[in-house]
Structure formats: C-alpha cells, structure tokens
Amino acid sequence: MDALKIVFLFALLVPLSSATLVVDYCVADFNFPVGPAGYPCKNPATLTADDFVFSGLGVAANSTTTQFNASSVFAVDVTFPALNGLGLSIGRLDIGVGGAVPIHSHRASEVILVSEGTIIAGFIDTNNTAYYKTLNKGDIMIFPPTLLHFQVNVGKSPALAYVTLNSASPGFEITTFALAGNDFPSDLIQKITLVDTAQVKKLKRIFGGTN
Questions:
Q1: Distance CA 201, CA 207 (A)
Q2: Whole-angstrom Cα distance, residue 169 to residue 166?
Q3: Distance between CA atoms of 140 and 133, rounded to whole angstroms?
Q4: Torsion of CA 112, 113, 116, 118, to 10 degrees
Q5: Which of 9, 94, 139, 186 has its CA 20 to 30 A from that of 23?
C-alpha cells in the first residue's frame, strides 16, 4: 500500500468549511450527547498525542463472520474521537474471495482505493443509471453522497481496500438489512418490493427481522 496515496485521499475529502474552525480541534467528549454539529469537546488540557492516533486499520478484519464474506473497520467519531468536527473519516474493507460489500448508502461522499486484489465497484444515480467498473490495485473510484453503491471481489484472492468519507459520522445503511432486519410485516415488504413473501421471510430469518 502506498501510504502517500492514502494520505492524499484522506485530505482530499476535508470540506472547505474546515477553514472556518474557531478551534484547532475538538476531540469528542462522550460524557455529553451528540448534536447536529457533533460532540462537545474535551478539555484540551487533558489531551495527549494518543488522542490523535488510531491504530485499528493495520489489522485485517475477519471476513468470515458475515453473510457476505466481507467486513470492515472504520475510524469515525465514535471510534476515533479526534475526528469529531473535522468532516472526514476512513475505513478498511476486507473482502474474501467471492465476497461483497452489499449495496448500501451513506450521507457523505466516498472515495475508495484498492490496495490488494480485484473488485467490481459501482453506484446507481437518481436517474437509475448504473456506473460500475473493475478496479485493480491502485485504482480509485468516487461514490457521490446518498447514492446506493457496492463492491464485489471478482479476483482469486482476498481484496483489501481503503475508503475515505467527508463526514466524521457518515452513516451506513445496507439495503438488505434495512428491508429484512426489522419488524415490518412480510406481506407489506412483498407489496413495496415485489419480492416473493417466502423469500422475504427467508431474508428475515437471516438478518434477524420478525413478522
């Protein structure tokens, strides 16, 4: 992995609004509730260099524990409090052979950098136009905010990718989980998706939904 590429992509997504900051940083204080602008700040006098370091991306995530043979580790405000208020986050994706990051969305823009392996990545815009491409090591792709997007490992070895997003709390909504991991009645989901009721119930069993 080229560390300079990661640093460049990470910095690329810092919003211009950061130029208006009235403090140098605002490490999140979880003793208070989060608001629309993030968490309140810790007292700077209590901070050390360790507050500004996150070491969780150096270890491969376990890609055998999910239904999609893929998993992730993210540095966001709740896992890396120094990101609070800075408008950026970063994550690591480990995708097993044949695995996928299922179609999902965020409330933020995203850039992906493939570090190892070969994946197909893509998104669907609000005109229902699909954009997808096979990405290899060193390739990057952008996913605009709120649009459904995905990644699939089509190579013969595990894939590793890093993503940066222009929010410290980008949100993560997986479409399948959203539909099947809830207590909506199965016949209601059938009506709004046209997916067969038996298949809806099967998905609910997989993803922990009821009814």
A1: 10
A2: 9
A3: 10
A4: 60
A5: 9
Residues in CB range of 30: below 8 A, 6 or more apart: 39, 78, 81
User: Which residues pair with residue 90 across a beta bridge?
Assistant: 75, 164
Q: How far apart are the first and last CA of the chain?
A: 46
Query: How far, in Å, are 79, 91, 114, 120, 162 from residue 10 at the CA level?
Result: 17, 10, 14, 22, 10
Q: Is 111:88 a contact under the CB 8 Å cutoff?
A: no
Both structure tokens of 164: 């940066």
pLDDT tens for the chain, 211 residues long, are: 565 555 555 555 555 445 456 789 999 999 999 998 899 999 999 999 999 999 999 988 765 557 899 999 999 999 999 999 999 999 999 999 999 999 999 999 999 999 999 999 999 999 999 999 999 999 999 999 999 999 999 999 999 999 999 999 999 999 988 888 889 999 999 999 999 999 999 989 888 888 7
* Alpha carbon distance 36, 55 (integer Å): 27
Q: Can you tell me whether residue 3 is helix, strand or coil?
A: helix
Distance CA 110, CA 101 (A): 14
Please answer whether residues 103 and 109 qualify as being in contact, where contact means their C-beta atoms are separated by less than 8 angstroms: no
Name every residue whose Cβ is closer than 8 Å to that of residue 32 and which is 6 or more positions away in sequence. Answer: 39, 40
